[in-house]
Amino acid sequence: MIKKDFFIERIQKIDRRFVYAEDMLVYISLINEKMVFIEDCLYNYMICESSICKENDQKYDIYLEDLNFALRVIEKMNLKKNILRYYSYFIKMNIYWFLHKSHKISYLKYKFLKKKEKAKRIYYILLSKIKKNKEL
């Protein structure tokens, strides 16, 4: 749980109006090693018909702009590599999806980029496990 004032303070530090992914960017900025995670889902995201989250061909460029901005911001943050890779992966997956949906890349290129990111993610997961085993 995060105090509303704290959340608003964090989002106001981003000097840009967001339509898409603003909550994720604020969440990433809150990450540190002292956070405690629980199993229960206390956040239920409701998407109604008029929601900005509903796919809309006219908004794909806005979504892409927001996601690219979020990616640039988190790459500048002082995050551990594994956390940066984790969030970068999901942002890139969304970027590729909206590039495909807006007909800026073909379906085959979308699938290729998606598989490439998945392969990189698996590589880094395996690499971190190998490093952990060597440390033991």
Write out key terms for the chains shown.
about 140 residues, mainly alpha, globular
The global form is globular
The major beta sheet can be summarized as: none
What's the total count of β strands? 0
Mean pLDDT: 79
C-alpha Rg, in Å? 17 Å
H/E topology pattern: HHHHH
Distance between the amino and carboxyl termini: 35 Å
| Unreliable residue runs | none
Q: Beta-sheet strand percentage?
A: under 5%
Structure characterization notes:
The protein is mainly α and about 140 residues long. Helices cover about 60% and strands about 0% of the residues. It has helices spanning about 5-10, 20-30, 60-75, 80-100, 105-135. Helix 2 (about 20-30) packs parallel to helix 3, helix 3 packs antiparallel against helix 4 and helix 4 (about 80-100) packs antiparallel against helix 5. The N and C termini lie far apart (about 35 Å). The mean pLDDT is about 80.
Task: Describe the SSE topology.
Layout: H1 4-12, H2 22-30, H3 60-76, H4 81-101, H5 107-135
Quick overview:
The chain is mainly α. The protein has helices spanning 4-12, 22-30, 60-76, 81-101, 107-135. The protein is built from 5 helices and no strands.
